[in-house]
Amino acid sequence: MNNPFDRFFARNIDAFLKKPLDEILIGVDNEELMTKHLPYLVHECGADFPPKLAEHLGTPFFEFARNEMKGKRPVKGHKPNYRQLSIRGGSGSVYQLEYKGKDVGDISDVHLFREAYVGAIYNHFGKSYRVAAHAANKVVLEDANPHFRTEGNFWTVIQKDEVLSGIRYAESLATYYGRLTVFENFGGFKLIDTRTGDVILEERSQIARPLNVRGFWIELADPLLLGAGTNVGDLFGLEQLLRIGAPFVVPCDRHDLGTHTTLKHTPSVYLYETVPGGIGVAEKALEVWPQVIETAISIAERCACNHGCPSCLVPPRLPPGFAEPKKQSAIAVARRLLHIASNSTREQFDPRRHAWIPLP
Asked: What DSSP string describes 181-237?
C-alpha cells in the first residue's frame, strides 16, 4: 500500500464504503465531514493535488480540498491525530523528602524517577544526600559522602502524538505545542568517587515509565541554521535555558517541568509538563518562548561560573558521549534562534487543514 491515495482511503474506509463519495460530500451540510478528513488527505498526499486525484475523491471533496489549501503548505514530519486510543497516563504524585525523621521538602514522581532513585546521591538545596529507601509517598534520605556522586543510566524517547498549535519562522525553525508520550527508561547507576574517578559500586536494573504529557518544543529542520562551525550539542544548553527560564515567565514550580533534547533526525528541544492534563505552561511557552530564553540568558550571564554549571547551562543528565555545553557557545546559539524568530516571516499551524498559514 505505497500509493498515498490508497493509504488515505484505508484510514477512512468506513466513511467511504457506506455510500458513493459524491453523494456523501455534496452540499453545505457535508462540509463538516470534508473538514474532518482534510488533515489526513493533506498528510498522505500533500497540498499539490493533481487532477487525477478527483477521480478518487470525487469532484466536491477535490475542489473543497484544493480551495482550502490555496496559499498554504502542508506540515511535514508530523501526522495529524488519527484518534487513536492511548491507555498510558501519569500519576502526578508528590513525595515528601525525609531526613532523620523530618520533612525537608518534596519531589514529584518524575524527578524521583530521574534523580532520587534508591541509591542515588541527591542534591537538595546545595546539600548532598543518599537516597536510602522509598516508602509510601516518602523518600528517605541519609547522609552522603560529599565526594561521591551517582551516574544514572537513563534514556528518553519522545513520541509526538498530536500537534495542537505551532509557529514556523522561515522554513527551518518551528515551534510547537501538542501532546507527547515520554518514555523514560532507567537501567541502573554507578557510584563514583569524584576525587579519583573510580567506580565504587555499579547497580543494574530495568525500569520503564511512560507519560502522556503536554509539551512545547523547538524543532530545527536544518542544523546549519545555527551557523557554520556551531556544535549542535549546544542545544543541550538551550534545553537548560528553557528549564531555568520558564518558571520566571510562566509561574510554575520547577518540578512541574521536564526537558529533553534529541539530535537524531530533526534536532528538537522539548519542554514538557509533568502534571497530568497540563497546567498551561507548555501552551503559554509557544507564545512567550523568546522571553523565556532571554530571561534564562540573563540568569546565565550573571552566574559566577566561567564555563557553565547546573545552575545555568548544564542539564541534569546528558546522553553518553556528549560533553557539557559551554556557556558562551550555548548562549550564542540561543541568541541566534532569537534573531531568526524576530527577523523572519511567520506561519501559523492550522490543525483544521494540517498546514502552515502565513501570518501578517
From this structure: EEEEEEEEEEEEETTT--EEEEEEEEEEEEEEEEEEEEEES-GGGG-TT--GGGHHH
The amino acid present at 123, given as its one-letter code, is N
What span, in angstroms and rounded, lies between the C-alpha atoms of 242 and 239? 5
d(CA 113, CA 190): 16
C-alpha cell at 231: 556544535
Residue pLDDT, tens place only, 80-115: 765 443 333 344 578 999 999 999 999 888 778 888
pLDDT digits (tens, 9 = 90+) for 32-80: 667 777 777 777 777 677 777 776 677 777 778 788 878 788 887 777 7
Residues 277, 283, 288: CA angle, nearest 5 degrees: 150
Handedness of CA 184, 190, 191, 194 (dihedral sign): negative
Helix (H, G, I), strand (E, B) or coil at 166: strand
Q: In what order do the strands lie in the sheet with 121-124?
A: 102-108, 94-99, 138-143, 127-135, 121-124
Side-chain-side CA neighbours of residue 37 (13 Å): 25
How much is the pTM?
Answer: 0.67
List, in sequence order, every residue forming a beta bridge with 165; answer none if it has no partner.
177
Q: In what order do the strands lie in the sheet with 257-262?
A: 73-74, 355-358, 346-350, 148-169, 173-193, 199-220, 268-273, 257-262
Q: Of 273, 146, 152, nearest to 201 (Cα)?
A: 152
- Closest C-alpha among 95, 112, 113 to residue 104: 95
How many CB atoms neighbour CB 319 within 10 A?
14
- Sign of the C-alpha dihedral computed for residues 327, 282, 37 and 349 taken in this order: negative
Distances in Å between the alpha carbon of 249 and those of 179, 191, 288? 22, 37, 8
- Taking the CA atoms of 11, 15, 21 and 26 in sequence, report the sign of the dihedral they define: negative
5, three cell numbers: 491515495
